[in-house]
Amino acid sequence: MSPDKLVMMANQIGRFFTPQRRIDVPAAIADHLEKFWDPAMRAAIVAHLEAGGAGLDPPVRAAVARLRKPVATMPR
Prior knowledge:
Layout (H helix, E strand, L loop, with lengths): L2 H15 L7 H12 L2 H12 L7 H10 L9
Helix pairs in contact: 1-2, 2-4, 3-4
């Protein structure tokens, strides 16, 4: 799936959650992406963010940043 299509879909999800009150909007968007997007789609949107994230709305940008997996640290 193209990055443009993923951005469009992610922004649509963001526009659903943004007007809702009393929720952490980026967390709700990230939760939705975790539950309903397959791993390849999530990896692609994270890669898009890491390449600059063109077109991502601010709450979606914050949500996608939450999808990044923590980097394991090397033992000393």
